[in-house]
Design a protein that fits this description.
Helices cover about 25% and strands about 20% of the residues. The protein has helices spanning about 15-20, 25-35, 45-55, 80-95, 115-125, 150-155, 185, 200-215, 240-245, 310-315, 335-345, 350-355; strands at about 10-15, 40-45, 70-75, 100-105, 110, 135, 145, 150, 190-195, 220-225, 250-255, 265-270, 285-290, 320, 365, 380, 385-390, 395, 400, 410.
């Protein structure tokens, strides 16, 4: 893992008062509520990201923009696993025939050349229906196009601006942190996720977990693990604030250790290590998300660092890893607060994951794209600034007791 600057710390984001922090504006009030200077000249990036947790919930929650009718399934007919996965996924998710796109290419290598990819993507773009908002890939190799992940290359088009030689930021996407909208119609991208697994059986199990998760409203726990690896632990700066603001939505445990083990209720697990011990000792609920910040988690069959596919093998439904050296820019990895909030507002897994990464070019998104455990749930911010489910009811004993979406929490004072 290569460092950003000398310490690997978050950079400072400059925001001009006249453009963003006008007195009386929602952003101004949100910034003031968490102790920012009224001048608004600079805020640390961890705090800037947290403002999403305030502002995203001020807009009415929309139904998931990506459904079985707006997801296209891309198949490599040269790859028996891809064909088997596509057939099973189409039946499991009732994907329309018109949304199945067939290609042929070498499935034995991990990486694809930009020239080969551009020809394939041109075929896909010529065949895809106009209303399709996202792609699901049914193979596991190749997972890389030049310096980009293959999921980001399909979503964004191959462009070296989404990669970097050396420790530099890469091109950002406007979809990051958005609270709704159709990704292709409104942002010009089709988020892409790979149905990944070492064999067909593993992927079919993954699909089953995603389907079972729908509308399940799991009473799981989020584990935000702050490790001793200071270079890979840069996301931990946000953990306490995320836990504080989301405490009424689910149980969140900030763990100062290198790993958790023997947990029976894992819904979210975010950490930063080269290799994460004991991932198989935990029980991951259907729809669970887990990832680790390291350089090459997206090298699915590499052995220098732990592959993101290990999370799926352990029972998670979605994960993420980078395929080329990202340095430890937090923006190149999922923001746990953004991901959890989007997912618990009813977004599908593919929407929540893509909305959580501001610089996704090098990142590989893997999992069951349509998994949606909190479909139909809405979130608002109460008078104390705590995020709560909006579709709840107040019980006689003064508890916020949601009958379907979340946990019972004491009534805010």
């Amino acid at each position: 893992m290569v460092l950003v600057g000398d310490t690997g710390s978050y950079r400072v984001a400059h925001i001009k008062t006249q453009n963003h922090l006008r007195p009386g504006s929602r952003l101004y009030r949100a910034a003031a509520s968490i102790g920012l200077s009224s001048t608004g000249e600079t805020i640390l990036q961890p705090v800037a990201i947290l403002i999403f947790l305030f502002l995203a919930v001020l807009s009415p929650a929309a139904n998931a923009a990506i459904t079985n009718s707006t997801l296209a399934l891309i198949v490599n007919d040269n790859d028996p696993q891809s064909v088997a996965v596509a057939e099973y996924y189409q039946k499991s998710r009732l994907i329309p025939d018109k949304n199945i796109i067939h290609l042929r290419f070498d499935h034995q290598t991990s990486s694809m050349s930009a020239a080969t990819f551009n020809a394939l993507r041109e075929t896909v773009e010529g065949a895809v229906a106009a209303d399709v908002q996202a792609y699901a890939l049914t193979w596991t190799k190749p997972y890389k196009v030049g310096c980009m992940s293959i999921t980001s290359a399909f979503a964004l088009g191959f462009d070296k601006a989404y990669c970097a030689q050396g420790c530099k930021p890469t091109k950002k996407v406007a979809y990051y942190g958005s609270s709704g909208g159709q990704p292709y119609r409104d942002f010009g991208i089709r988020p892409t996720m790979m149905l990944a697994g070492k064999n067909s059986f593993d992927v079919l199990q993954l699909i089953d977990r995603g389907v079972i998760a729908d509308n399940s409203r799991p009473r799981g726990r989020a584990y935000l693990v702050s490790t001793s690896d200071k270079h890979r632990n840069v996301r931990a700066a946000n953990y306490p604030a995320i836990a504080s603001r989301m405490q009424a939505l689910l149980d969140i445990e900030v763990v100062k250790a290198n790993y958790i083990h023997d947990k029976a209720d894992v819904l979210f697990y975010f950490t930063g290590l080269k290799r994460v011990p004991h991932v198989n000792s935990n029980t991951y609920l259907p729809g669970a998300v887990a990832d680790h910040l390291t350089s090459s988690g997206g090298a699915l069959f590499g052995d220098q660092q732990m592959s993101a596919i290990k999370w799926l093998e352990a029972g998670a439904t979605g994960s993420y890893g980078t395929v080329s050296e990202p340095c430890n820019f937090p923006g190149k990895f999922p923001n746990p607060g953004v991901l959890m909030l989007s997912y618990m507002r009813g977004d599908t897994l593919i929407e929540a994951y893509w909305k959580s990464v501001s610089m996704p070019g090098q990142g590989l998104f893997i999992g069951e794209p349509l998994s949606s455990p909190f479909k139909g749930c809405r979130i608002k911010r109460n008078l104390d600034g705590i995020l709560v489910f909006a579709n709840d009811w107040l019980s006689p004993n003064g508890q916020h007791a949601d009958s379907s979406c979340g946990l019972a929490q004491p009534k805010a004072k």
